[in-house]
Queue: 4 jobs
Job 1
Amino acid sequence: MDSVLLMFVILFFIYFAYVILFGERNIFRLIQKEQYRNSLFEEVSKLKSENIQLEERINYLNSDTFFIEKRAREDLGLVKEGEEVYIIVDKENISDKKEKRWIDRVKEKYQVFHLR
């Protein structure tokens, strides 16, 4: 009887070790999934902090009148009412581009230029 019980305990131990080490939900998969989960949590926290920084930057850029005015002047070629536009043209570096630059559109709009 003791040998049967010992054999049963050994078989149970072998089965239990097999399930833990090589079964569907083995310890190695559990460790791997835990590491993957931790890396995902780290990535989420990084993305949240980056999102907060980007929202702060958006709020700053939307509320900074100097930046808005600078972008309007540089990108769109806009001027304030009553301002005069002075454009210095380097005749040596003029290229024969068919596409008009924003500065060329400003030149056409303001036919009179005052150069110093």
Job 2
Amino acid sequence: MRRASSNHRAPGQACHLLVVWRASHAWLPSLERAVMIRVLVIDDDEIAREAMRAVLVRAGFDVVELATPIGATAVIKRDKISVVALDINMPTINGDKLAKLLRDNAQLSNLGIVLVSSCDIDKLSAIGEKVGADGIVSKAKLHVALAPAVERAVASRAGKTSPPPSSAGSSAASSSSNPPPSMRRPK
């Protein structure tokens, strides 16, 4: 008969440690859900793209990257992307125009869209509102705001079967500490 070594945990101990860790990192997606969430990052700037990828991978998301918006729809469909995080200022097509095209595509009605930019947050918020984005993130707050914005985008798109009626009625999440009332989590 083999004896268990002293460095093994009791069967329920690992679960307890995970629960404690999750409680202290409540903004992170659940481990089960994060495995299924695939995020497409689109940014022509390699450094920014790598920063977004690093933040999202650390939060447990599966990340696919594109340096250009060209071919994004094919990648979204092929790789079963849940959320697109895209830069606004790109040379081939601006992110806001791509976001509008994606939002207007009935086949992608459950796709979350998070706009990322270094432009003024008020301008970014107005652009997000106009194109029906599910969230906005300032590049200055990328390390703390991107993962929660992606999680909110997934939650806001869960169960939706058609695109929003118009961009005027949609709400973009802010990267500030006080999101709009529609995006606040209950305490």
Job 3
Amino acid sequence: MARTDSTTEDLVEAPRGFRGQLAHRTGLAIVVLIVVAGMAGLLGPRTSTETASAGGWRLTVEHASITRSGQPAPLHLRVEHAEGFTQPVQIALCDGLFDHLDFQNWYPNPSAETSSPGRLLYEFDPPSGSVLEVSLDARAAPGQWGGHERCRATVLVDDAPVVGADFGVRVVP
């Protein structure tokens, strides 16, 4: 008498039912959509620009609108004032943004930094001319599993806001 060691030889392969076919096709369609979105660049990092003007001041905020953990999340601020700058330029940012960023450095470095609940205030020496450009070298902090942070950049003169722009950074897994 011959012994067989197969545990599956008595099983009959049944055709997939309607639900099985639907689940298979749905899963395949989701995978195809993810691959197509990736190839089209829809899942990668993106930057956006927000601009605001008021009282002769113009603020342009170029920021990472979508990033991933460990990826660059630069922030570039451009402050313009037609009459030039006669005193230090103050820029306020929400402190929640920095909870999600691995902060590297400001270019140029601020001459002063202070904080209050919910806000960080950076002061930059007045530039010659009518434009101050400031860049923050940052990355989305490691271990971020997603989230969205809304922030406002505000230019202040003598601690009073003169122009501000809202922006958001979304960290995707």
Job 4
Amino acid sequence: MRMLLLALLPALPVLPGCVEAFGDQAATASGTALGTFHVVGTQTGNTCGEGALGATRLWEFDVELARGEGALFWDNGASVIEGVLDDDEVSFSIEGRVVVDMRAGDGPPGPPCAVERRDRARGELRGTGDDIARFEARMSYAFTPTAGSRCENLVAGELSVEPVFAALPCGMDYDLEARRRGDPPE
């Protein structure tokens, strides 16, 4: 179950489950298709611990983007997340959250432990009008035990049986660089 937490955009490929990028939001794609983009994410910060949740320093994925009035639609292949497109029509932000029961499935036994993951991305589209050739963004993930959770054995230390985190709460940051690899449908 610990591997469920990070499945972000389409996901860090080593982290199955929890396929909703940016949490549990669902949106209907509409607007103008901008194309398919190949994204390379580079980890720039990590207070959760090296390899926590199976995270790697570098990961790649594809995402389809569409633009609507004041909205950017991010389709990771599993769900469509609606973000905000600023008045300048190039700056965007996407936010979401998901809560994962860390004791379900293959997780270690113990008292109730649920972790909330808050996702935030802020970036800029690069191109002219609807001809977007690339985008850049900064993405962050914050992990916090929910109220009443007892997650001590998942944190590296005396009580840990199978540590998942170096510390809780914690976070991870990524710089994203993306290039369009597929034109929007006509």
